[in-house]
UniProtKB/TrEMBL annotation:
Domain called WRKY: residue spans: 130-187
Protein name in the entry: Group III WRKY transcription factor
One cellular-component annotation, GO: nucleus
Annotated segments matching region Disordered: 186-229
Subcellular location: Nucleus
Gene3D superfamilies reported in the protein's UniProt record: WRKY domain
Domain of life, per lineage: Eukaryota
Composition skew (Low complexity), residue ranges: 213-225
SUPFAM superfamilies linked: WRKY DNA-binding domain
Entry-linked SMART domains: WRKY
Alphabetically ordered keywords of this record: DNA-binding, Nucleus, Transcription, Transcription regulation
Transferase listed as a keyword: no
Length: 351
DNA sequence: AGTATTTGACCGGC
DNA sequence: GCCGGTCAAATACT
């Protein structure tokens, strides 16, 4: 553990040093007559570097450091190690395993909270994020003082695999686009990205119910789905809710899983023109300095999913590696969050 | 028909 | 008694 910590500190220092170096380069560029692209590139590299450093501080820093803006306090069992920290692949899984192994009472199970911001779609309906596991709703309760009811979910495989993971989903009163998700217990099921296609998740079905006649038709009516940006949904709201950003460029989707841009892009680089389009679209001036939530168009989904499917099928694809060309890759191609500081125009990054 | 969701009832902690 | 959490019958969906 100590070695891991010192490694983190080294990485942190490295990131900061890199940021400084890049800033120096930028200064030189400003004095010289460098191209705007170069400057832009340097700026984004700098921001990316500091972003990473900040994330390291948040996630791996001192035990006293704020893990994230979770603090739905009663989770008394949540220690600095136990929380979700960043929503990344390694997300404290080991820690919950240790904790849940210690105590079997549900009340004492590891518990942590995520705040998940979601885009409100055109028809005003959205649900909390897919997290790579399949859940079954077993209850809903109006909570005193809360504007929205709280939903209770358990793992679909509670009985078949005795997976005792549960989660509570509470929509934020202040910001309805924010869902506070309290996870309880670790998944012992093997379906976090298994080859067995799980049933559709509750959030998805909720949306499906609401959108029953809307969403798919909307997607269809959006016309040129072969053109990536036409279906690109950008939300620059809720910029403060950055805690879910696992790394300066990762597709955060699951408490236990995310996909790096490398893996994701390598799967889509076959379609170079599509990627170029994607790349350019995110280089537009409007793209600067914001969080991005974008919904992958069906074309891109198909790249990952191999086949054309209905929206509900597409959404559930994140639970099933069967449909994914990337084995055991547990990621969602639902609306995902991109780090605003990611240097999309970094020529060497994607190659 | 099988599976998932809804929702009122019930239970336990405070 | 209140409230959060869970159960389970009814209902909806595929």
């Amino acid at each position: 553990m100590d070695s891991g910590k010192s490694w983190e500190q080294k990485s942190l220092v490295n990131e900061i040093i890199e940021g400084m170096e890049l800033a120096k380069q930028l200064r030189l560029c400003l004095n010289a007559k460098s191209s705007a692209d170069t400057k832009q590139f340097l700026v984004q590299r700098i921001l990316s570097s500091y972003e990473k450093a900040l994330l390291m501080l948040k996630c791996g820093g001192s035990p006293q450091s704020p893990i994230r803006a979770i603090a739905s306090a009663p989770e008394s069992l949540m220690s600095a190690n136990e929380g979700p920290c960043c929503v990344d692949n390694n997300r404290s899984l080991q820690d919950h395993q240790d904790l849940t192994a210690v105590s079997k009472k549900r009340k004492e199970m590891a518990k942590w909270t995520e705040h998940v911001t979601r885009v409100i779609s055109e028809n005003g309906i959205e649900g909390p994020h897919e997290d790579g596991h399949s859940w079954r709703k077993y209850g809903q309760k109006d909570i005193l003082g809360a504007k929205y009811p709280r939903s209770y979910y358990r793992c679909t495989y509670l009985f078949t695999q005795k997976c005792r993971a549960r989660k509570k989903v509470q929509r934020s009163d202040e910001d309805p686009t924010v869902f506070e998700i309290t996870y309880e217990g670790k998944h012992t099921c093997s379906h976090g990205g298994s080859s067995v296609p799980p049933p559709p998740s509750p959030e998805k079905q909720e949306r499906k119910r609401h959108n029953h006649n809307n969403t798919y038709q909307q997607q269809q009516s959006q016309g040129n789905q072969m053109s990536f940006p036409t279906n690109l949904r950008v939300n620059t709201e809720n910029l403060d809710d950055r805690e879910n950003t696992a790394s300066p460029f990762s597709f955060t989707s699951s408490p236990f899983g995310s996909i790096s841009v490398d893996a994701f892009l390598s799967s889509m680089l076959d379609d170079k023109s599509l990627f170029d389009h994607f790349n350019q679209s995110l280089l537009s001036p409007a793209a600067g300095g914001s969080n991005y939530y974008f919904e992958l168009p069906s074309q891109m989904r198909n790249i990952a999913g191999n086949e054309q499917r209905s929206e509900s099928d597409i959404i559930s694809a994140n639970n099933s590696s069967t449909n994914s060309p990337i084995p055991d890759m547990d990621f969602s191609l639902e609306p995902v969050e991109l780090d605003s500081y990611f240097p999309f125009d970094c020529p060497g990054f994607f190659l």
